Amino acid sequence: MSAADAAMAGDDLARLRAMLRIRRFEERAAELYGAGKIRGFLHLCVGEEAVAVGVMRALAPEDAVVSTYREHGHALARGLPAERIMAEMYGQAEGCCRGRGGSMHLFDVARRFYGGNAIVAGGLPIAVGLALADKLSHRSAVTACIFGDGAVAEGEFHECLNLAALWRLPVLFLCENNLYAMGTALALTESQVDLCAKARSYELPAERVDGMDPALVERAVRGAVAALREGSGPRFLELSTYRFRAHSMFDAELYRERREVEAWKLRDPITTLSALMRQGGALSAEALAGLESEVAAELDAAVAFAEAGTLEPVEDLLRDVYATEATDARG
Amino acid sequence: MPAGEAAPARTTWREAMRAALREALRGDPRVFLMGEDVGHYGGCYAVSRGLLEEFGPERVRDTPLSESAFVGAGIGAALGGMRPIVEVMTVNFSLLALDQIVNNAATLRHMSGGQLTIPLVIRMATGAGRQLAAQHSHSLEGWYAHVPGLKVLCPATLEDARGMLAPALADPNPVILFEHVGLYNVEGALAPDAGPVDILRAAVRRAGTEVTLVAYGGMVPRALAAADELAAGGIDAEVIDLRVLRPLDSGTLVASVRKTRRAVIVDEGWRSGSLSAELSARLVEEAFYDLDAPIERVCSAEVPIPYARHLEAAAIPQVATIVAAARRAVGRP
Ligand SMILES: Cc1ncc(C[n+]2csc(CCOP(=O)(O)OP(=O)(O)O)c2C)c(N)n1
Ligand SMILES: [Mg+2]
Predict the structure, then answer these.
(1) Rounded to 5°, angle at Cα A173 from A169 and A178
(2) What's the CATH number where B266 sits?
């Protein structure tokens, strides 16, 4: 194996591991939801792991991320500890937001992870502003703004692409196109279903990428980020993907055919990559089993952490409605 | 105010606001102003005239007509360490940014467990009186005052126009600063060293003993005029300028009413579900046994503010209606 091949194989292993971690995390979350440990809305990203992993591997620590309510995978891949996310979903003080946000509102200012927004397209203006601050402060950071295909119908999508392009802001708009907004297929709501065409109409370079392949996602995002750091203005990537599970835990999936789901599952990013690696001799059965047990151990620990968590005292209910002192800290 | 520049002794409310903006832009490189027509046009109410020339397009930024995007961008820029001042032309248009203000600016700190800080100032014009009809004349300050996580300021005097912006910018929370369109042309004397004021307390603008008139923003001059007229008729009214609608300083109001034992609340918002209702409730909760008469409210008529001058005048609180309410309160109608 050449050095380049070896490096590539190492990267594939890291991608596989990261995707597996998200998949198993989501499966655990579903179980815990069934057990009543997690409540509220829970949106899983099973099937979409390649997007999270490809995007986050291409970003630097100083970059900012703005995401949606379907963000566990993004948060995990960005480096938020699984145990802090799990505790957040348990509603506990040890959660990354002290239990105030829950599944849909994960934040971690140290990692510049700015949520977790449950208003469709609500994060786009924030991303534009974060990028404006970076630009005005002469920092080279970029802001990755992730949203679903449903968001492109909102006015904020159009306002924000225009504004970011007009001011040449370093925002990477990343549309996770999983073909549905809840139960509504794109074609039922959009007169123009070519999302890249919409972005191009605002003068953003736009590209559609196979969102089931983490290496392709990573390559596209790396390329876009490099251009963004040069100050060439915002870009748009459409990441074609599919969620294998229901929209949330309350969804009878009346709007799509079982066959369609099964067809997409043949392109499962995890089984596809592991099969490729097995064929190429880059992954043994033992190594795969080893990965699985490592991930399982991490998640066991995360669940144990959440189980052992404490509730924020009710006396602190009003804490942090307002900031009480001036701060110069970012975020 | 930098050395060598003496503020004019006589100034307008608009110029006082502009002086505050200029000082903010000069004093802190993180401060910038953005909004529709704040730059080349000079501001739809001419508040920012001349600032583009002085500070350049990086710091005085004309935005597209996209209230949600640029108000939200202000939130993001504040998260990113800047001190943005976002101007929304009028409170009516701010409804296109309501999602960003209520769902993001007001929530992010608490929802993130205290991780995020949003030192943002949003300025917007409000109020009727210029015959601009129903889509440019409403007073929705009370809606914003309803929302935890926001602070809401209503400067009425020249001193507050000059002095509220600096503490609003220094505040680590999202602050909405309402500028009543009826005030921009008000002229008066302003001390050359006028500077920051507190943004915590209501102020007694005129001391009196028989009835308390409470108002904010554009209704303060009217309440003061009503007090003059009442004085001419032998009734001694106290006038309270609320100044800050959230957090509300009910202590100053309650103390005044304990003394005068009568209250007239003047609110340009509609009566039903209004800030006046909140004030009334607080007086009932905190000063019930001190009241000698039912609380009076003078609010806008429950109607979209009409265009025709006489109808507009009939729809909003006037000196005469305030005087009549005060007379009822003291039992000398
Ligand atoms: C402004 C707004 N309108 C409606 C909803 C309800 N809602 C929640 S998720 C969703 C679908 C969004 O679909 P998409 O953007 O494609 O994201 P996906 O769930 O597919 O990841 C809708 C309509 C919402 N949260 N916010
Ligand atoms: Mg979707």
Answers:
(1) 175
(2) 3.40.50.920
